[in-house]
Amino acid sequence: MLAASTLLTTNSVDKLTTRRISELADVNIATLYQFFPNKEAIIFALYQRWLNEMDDVFDRMEMKQSKQMGWRKLFIKIFDALNQVQTELIVRDRLLKAMGMNEDLRQLDLDHSIVLSKRLAKLMANQESHLSECELQEHGTLIFHFERALVTPLANAKGDDQEVLYKKGRDFLLEMISLAFR
């Protein structure tokens, strides 16, 4: 997994091969195939690891949230934590681009987007949003997809530009969320 992730920091998904992964990991390719039958299985596992990191962020925030914290502070903490997960930005970007490779990856991505959208909606509801459950679900979906859309520009930005872009993106997300509390 580390070797595949490392290769993705310098190469696109189409240049990722099981042979290159096994060489970098210093593992016989036959051994690699015992755990991962193909490149897509490795990508699936990397993507699943990133999804688990995001789930962990939501688990922590759901436990910490309180109405006294206020929705703005809660969502700033969520977005900052999502931005700081262990999976590197460039790897996240390349994994997102790989999601169209096969049906299993597309389905995993779709299933997870629904789960996280619902979690966003639940967090907004717990902070006493005035929107209906259906409206919150739609709002959560929009927020999820916008946050996801920030990955590529952030991965391509460097230094101070990356920080400025992140803060502007986060501020826009907070503005979108504020509509649920007006």
TrEMBL record:
Residue spans binding DNA: 17-36
InterPro entries, per the entry: DNA-bd_HTH_TetR-type_CS (IPR023772), Homeodomain-like_sf (IPR009057), HTH_TetR (IPR001647)
Residues in HTH tetR-type domain copies: 1-54
One Pfam family, short name: TetR_N
Coiled coil: none
Keywords: DNA-binding
Entries under PROSITE patterns matching the protein: HTH_TETR_1 (PS01081), HTH_TETR_2 (PS50977)
GO molecular function, one term: DNA binding
Protein name (Swiss-Prot/TrEMBL): HTH tetR-type domain-containing protein
The species this protein was found in: Kiloniella spongiae
